[in-house]
Amino acid sequence: MREANHITSEPVISVGLMTGVEEVRFKLSGEYASTNGRRFLPGAYHAMARENRLFIHDSQGQLLVTAPEIELMPNDVSPGSFTVARVPIGRDFHWQQEQELSFQGSLILKCTPTARLTVINRLPLEAYLTSVIASEMSAFAPLEFLKAHAIISRSWLLAQLHQRGCEPDSPPSEGHGALRMPTPDSQSTSLEIIRWFDRRAHTAFDVCADDHCQRYHGITRISSPTVMDAIAETRGMVLTFDDEICDARFSKCCGGMTETYSTAWEDREIPYLAGTYDGERWPMDFPTPLAEEKAATYWITHRPPAFCNTSDRALIEQILPEIDQHTLAFFRWQIDYEQDRLRAIVEKKLGVDLGPILSLQPLRRGVSGRLITLAIRGEKRSVVIGKELEIRRVLSETHLYSSAFIVRTEGEGSIPHRFHLIGAGWGHGVGLCQIGAAVMARQGKSHVEILAHYFRGAALRRVYTAPAAPSDER
Q1: 355 C-beta neighbours (distance < 10 Å), count
Q2: Full-prediction pTM beyond 0.85?
Q3: How many Å apart are CA 416 and CA 319, to the nearest integer?
Q4: 8 A C-beta contact, residue 373 and residue 363
Q5: Mean pLDDT, rounded, for 18-39
Q6: What DSSP element (H or E) covers 441?
Q7: Half-sphere exposure (CA, 13 Å, Cβ side) for 61?
Q8: Model confidence over 271-285: pLDDT tens digits?
Q9: Phi, psi dihedral angles at 203 (to 5 degrees)
């Protein structure tokens, strides 16, 4: 049970900034000290891994310390910040890049048994959230939207922390599900890959800093007093259901209909993560249910009225961070593949040559029209893949915007020479729709109304007001 009343004060959390790197360059803007009392003055530093130890040099190349792990804590009197070079953001997605980012709190460097470095930021949860809501969306988004986002981000993290604490013997993994391939002596030419990717894979830290968990770009993105107001006014506030903190999920754009939890993750239903139409009332000219192919096709090839159905460029620029503004095609989109390109992508992602692709056949859809399972039929063999993120991963060099798509083909004979994927939405679609929620706030809806719309049956509760525990109680 994630009983809300078990939390009495603000936790201190650890955020993984980088993993598996051979070296990292960082700068300190204030005075820091290691746990053994060694002082680190403002300036540039270089850390590298060798065997089972890390080595830290100053800007002059002088070796300062060597150890398996070190934590640098800011001066309590005048805490500064640290800046890390080449932090990856959007890993494996179409917006992947590296940036120099600055952070508050402690800097932890760990050397792994494979002579790689893990870079971790430790800080109070509310300070972490101040960055999250300004990284996931723009710091200049409407206040009521930022308040709603602060509450769901806080809820999700506390639920994850509790779940990890209650399942100490559960092996963490990003991939869950089944992989069934034909045996060498089998006559079968088909295989099945059904898996999902959750956010409980981290053992060295509580949460990662990228989109696989929640975007966290440090103090670099905090540029508006609205962000500070949103955090202060919702401090310690979470969503609860049956006295448990909600595992609140969110995605960029639901495409007009949110999805159920089981479509994206394990086969269990969560009442407050059920499909919800992203509008005032269902448009009567759109057939249902969207799990059926005919209704899904009509839905995806049209633009139903919905909160997230907006082409207001000024609004999009106000609510989306810069890295997400390269496209406005998030509500409805299309991608085209030549036969050779699609075949190469599928072979690279699966590690199996299916031969020329004959068809992409939808097998099962969720309530938003998102595909749960898809059959890729090739001339040599076929594969059934799921769930939604696996489908998005296999059919793209990065990731498709969503798995809510239909397929149209061109070409004579049994082997198409071109595939057209026509889709809806951006992300898994479960929980809060960020674009839709921002539009609701722009229309005057409060954070309470926004949360009630996306998390049916959930209640708001403030679980703490006290500050984070001091370092010796962590």
Answers
A1: 16
A2: yes
A3: 40
A4: yes
A5: 91
A6: helix 434-442
A7: 0
A8: 999 999 999 999 999
A9: -110, -25
